Amino acid sequence: MGTQLRPFLDAIEINHGPKIELGRYFLQLAESARRLGISWHMGRDFDRLVEVNRQHQDTWEPLSPIYDPELSEINPDNVIYIEGQASGEAVVTLILRRYDWPTSTLREEWESGRVAYRDPETQMSPQEKWVAAAPMAAEIGGRVVFTGGLWCHPSFRRKRLPVLTVALMRSISLAVWNPDFAIGMIESGPLVRTLLPLYGHPPVQPGMKISGAWRTFECDLVWETPDVLRNNILKNLTITNQPDQGYGRDESIRRARSPR
After folding, report:
1. pLDDT tens over the chain, length 260 residues
2. Is 254 part of a structural domain of the chain?
3. The pTM is what?
4. Of 14, 176, 186, 245, which is least packed with CB atoms within 10 Å of its CB?
5. Can you spell out the DSSP letters for 154-165?
6. Domain hosting residue 225, numbered range
């Protein structure tokens, strides 16, 4: 698969949610990034994430098998990759992966290894173990959007970029997939205390753990439902209804033909 990305406002599809407000919100996020010298780009391109990760191993841990196309069921239909560029170089990344679990839960998928591996029995190492002790993991199911692959170049840290990346996660999840749950994992410890205020204090539970894999660590589960996603977007929308400026009719924000 190629590594071509498109400007975010050209690529984003609004299949669900309040379309006019989402369109304005995407314009707002693009403008907020521009003020930092960043332009957003988007693709259904997991290979690009792998490429950027390999280029920045000095400041970025190796990727989870969740995002490895050789190991997982990741494909262009269930992934959206977002890259922030400054002077043509990647400085921030984010990936959203959609899962469909109509009869299963996050706990079952996590502990079986299916959340990451196409064939856990043959692909997981013998000592590898995924634990989902967070109580909410047993309740999360249906259409689920998992957000990860978050990295920021050191020169752009301390610029409150997590505020923008979580806003992208919420708005893209709702607009493209309208999930039953949007979830993420934050490594347990000081990072949780740092990021939760920037994320707007979503609900969080400890108890997610991976051991004996590409790395061993514990993480906290965060989640939001569609109503919460929608309310966060509307609450933070600062571009008001100004028909003379054409925000609601901007042709750079596509209306998709059908949901996916």
Report:
1. 445 899 999 999 999 999 999 999 999 999 999 999 999 999 997 788 888 999 999 998 888 899 888 899 999 999 999 999 999 999 999 999 999 999 999 999 999 999 999 999 999 999 999 999 999 999 999 999 999 999 999 999 888 888 999 999 999 999 999 999 999 999 898 878 888 888 888 999 999 999 987 888 899 999 999 999 999 999 999 855 543 333 333 444 444 433 34
2. no
3. 0.88
4. 245
5. GGGTTS-HHHHH
6. 6-239
* CATH assignment at residue 55: 3.40.630.30
Is residue 260 assigned to a domain?
no
Q: Which neighbouring-strand residues pair with 147?
A: 96, 184
Confirm whether 259 is domain-assigned. no
Domain count, the chain: 1
Coil, strand, or helix at residue 247? Answer: helix
Is residue 200 assigned to a domain?
yes
The whole-angstrom separation of Cα 237 and Cα 232 is 9
